[in-house]
Design brief:
The protein has two domains: 1-81 and 161-252, 3-Layer(aba) Sandwich (Rossmann fold); 89-156. It has helices at residues 46-54, 75-79, 97-107, 112-125, 141-153, 171-186, 198-204, 222-228, 232-240; strands at residues 6-17, 20-31, 35-39, 61-66, 69-71, 82-85, 159-163, 190-194, 207-212, 215-221. The protein is an alpha/beta fold.
């Protein structure tokens, strides 16, 4: 079963760097048990927003509630119930994949034997078993993404925050990761995901929000967005205001 109420509630959220607002008055609600896509062009404020949700960047103004708890006041309690896959994989290069996943499990308070057993099972699930003892420094970018997602699952979180989880992942690895995430949603988890790959979002997500210059410009269910446009790409291009005719070059 999914969550009974909203899992993420953001109200009038702002984050200012110098004289520029990276996020400018963002208000958003994410219902429980859904796969939520958070989209926008480069520099729109997606990563800044997700860093504030993760507790990695304090808001300049506004409020954040995750799982019914205020952030940052209840940050420790919140973080115990969420799984994080940041844009830049914050992995320890001098640990093996198995050691890293077990280490993350221990951070979340799992007994050593439980963390080790789950790490072994997750490596098999993500088809990383053959690289169990290889140092993460030797992993490809796609392998690093898979081990980061595996580590995010070890404590069975209720909410996942994922910033570009499929970036640099090949088609086979991405398919595996998508199937695992969809299974998590079927079991009641909520996923908040940013991605530049609109085809991935269109296939996976129930609901979508699009931001531009730190402000919300469009949100709704995937069905509602399809009513307004043929594809998610069409809706995205219209929402961010970059639709224009393509000029040609005489020599090209």
């Amino acid at each position: 079963m999914g969550e009974a109420g909203p899992v993420i509630e953001i109200h009038n959220l702002r984050k200012v760097y110098g004289n520029k607002a990276a996020v400018d008055g963002l208000t958003l609600t994410v219902p429980g048990g859904c796969f939520f896509g958070f989209l926008g062009p480069n520099g729109a404020g997606k990563t800044t927003t997700i860093k504030m949700l993760m507790g990695l960047a304090p808001p300049t103004a506004g409020s954040i509630s995750l799982l019914g708890l205020p952030m940052p006041e209840k940050a420790l309690e919140i973080k115990q119930q969420i799984g994080l896959v940041p844009d830049e994989s914050l992995l320890f290069d001098h640990l093996s994949g198995g050691e890293f996943i077990e280490f993350v499990g221990r951070i979340y308070g799992l007994d050593r034997s439980v963390a080790r057993g789950r790490a072994r099972e997750l490596l098999e699930l993500f088809e990383l078993d053959s690289a169990r003892n290889k140092l993460i420094a030797e992993y490809s970018k796609g392998m690093r993404k898979r081990v980061a997602m595996a580590a995010a699952l070890i404590h069975r979180p209720r909410l996942f925050l994922m910033d570009e989880p499929f970036e640099g992942v090949d088609a086979v690895g991405a398919r595996l990761m998508k199937d695992i995430l969809l299974d998590q949603v079927r079991h009641g988890a909520t996923i908040f995901l940013t991605s530049h790959v609109l085809e991935v979002v269109e296939r996976l997500c129930d609901r979508v929000a699009i931001i531009r210059d730190g402000r919300l410009v469009l949100q709704g269910s995937m069905d509602e967005l399809r009513d307004e446009a043929v594809t998610l790409e069409d809706a995205f291009v219209r929402a961010v205001g970059v639709e224009r005719s393509i000029e040609t070059l005489d020599w090209l």
